[in-house]
Amino acid sequence: MVYSIEVQDLIKRFGDYEAVAGINFSINKGEVFGLLGPNGAGKTTTIRMLATLLPPTSGRIFVEGLDVRRHGGLVRRLLGYVPQALSADGTLTGYENLLLFAKLLRLGKGERERRIDELLNLLNLQDAAHKLVREYSGGMVRRLEIGQAILHRPHILILDEPTVGLDPVARHTVWNTLKQLREETGLTILITTHYMEEAEATCRRVAIMNRGRIVAQGTPEELKRATGKPDATLEDVFTFYTGDQVETGGSFHELRKTRLRVQRFN
Ligand SMILES: Nc1ncnc2c1ncn2[C@@H]1O[C@H](COP(=O)(O)OP(=O)(O)OP(=O)(O)O)[C@@H](O)[C@H]1O
């Protein structure tokens, strides 16, 4: 069987520092897979390598059976990527942001209109389509960015902490959108997050990273059972394997990320 994503012995060093220290995992077609871990665990470095934005030091990555090193161009067409940093332009409307991406893809006028319309409906942004994005709520911006990332109809969507800095209601709408997308389009979704409750509710399987290594992977149920505690939550699993408390907001790290996003809109 060909996996959507297969990672073999992947290593990334920055000078002497090993940010990703030899990891292995695979993701099935149509699966929602969560990469969890404390700050600095190596999650972003890993997904940047998957998204062809960063060359690995060693190891191999296959996307639908294609070696990323040899078929970067083809792989990029199969992937949509929503980075942590803002990728929507606050001075344009939601529609204009999507139009810009559609033009970059060189879609014809009819096809552009069709796809943008389809996405605005799917992402529940029809009513806000002609409002400036800087007037959007955080959840709406994230949904628009998901739209930008899937305009070219990729098979796999990669998201780097898409709900960080959002309030609980907005986080809920983003996760719901992802669930709906998967159901309606069969997209494979790889997501990094440190919101354990949300990962548990949405991800079929998760991998927990710590200091560049995958310290546990499986379904949330399997991982909870492995702790030996009958009423364990995924948060307990996280603490069990990383020795770290899950950050749920208000940390310097999270604040910095949120601020960076807000600055982009001012
Ligand atoms: N370009 C770089 N040069 C040097 N070190 C780097 C570089 N990029 C990342 N690192 C280091 O690699 C480690 C892993 O970083 P990474 O961003 O992948 O972690 P993360 O799990 O995504 O955490 P976060 O939630 O903070 O984004 C960190 O210690 C980071 O400082």
From TrEMBL:
<feature type="domain" description="ABC transporter">
    <location>
        <begin position="5"/>
        <end position="236"/>
    </location>
</feature>
<dbReference type="GO" id="GO:0016887">
    <property type="term" value="F:ATP hydrolysis activity"/>
</dbReference>
<dbReference type="GO" id="GO:0005524">
    <property type="term" value="F:ATP binding"/>
</dbReference>
<keyword id="KW-0813">Transport</keyword>
<keyword id="KW-0547">Nucleotide-binding</keyword>
<protein>
    <submittedName>
        <fullName>Putative ABC transporter ATP-binding protein YbhF</fullName>
    </submittedName>
</protein>
<dbReference type="InterPro" id="IPR003439">
    <property type="entry name" value="ABC_transporter-like_ATP-bd"/>
</dbReference>
<dbReference type="InterPro" id="IPR003593">
    <property type="entry name" value="AAA+_ATPase"/>
</dbReference>
<dbReference type="InterPro" id="IPR050763">
    <property type="entry name" value="ABC_transporter_ATP-binding"/>
</dbReference>
<comment type="similarity">
    <text>Belongs to the ABC transporter superfamily.</text>
</comment>
<dbReference type="Pfam" id="PF00005">
    <property type="entry name" value="ABC_tran"/>
</dbReference>
<dbReference type="InterPro" id="IPR027417">
    <property type="entry name" value="P-loop_NTPase"/>
</dbReference>
<keyword id="KW-0067">ATP-binding</keyword>
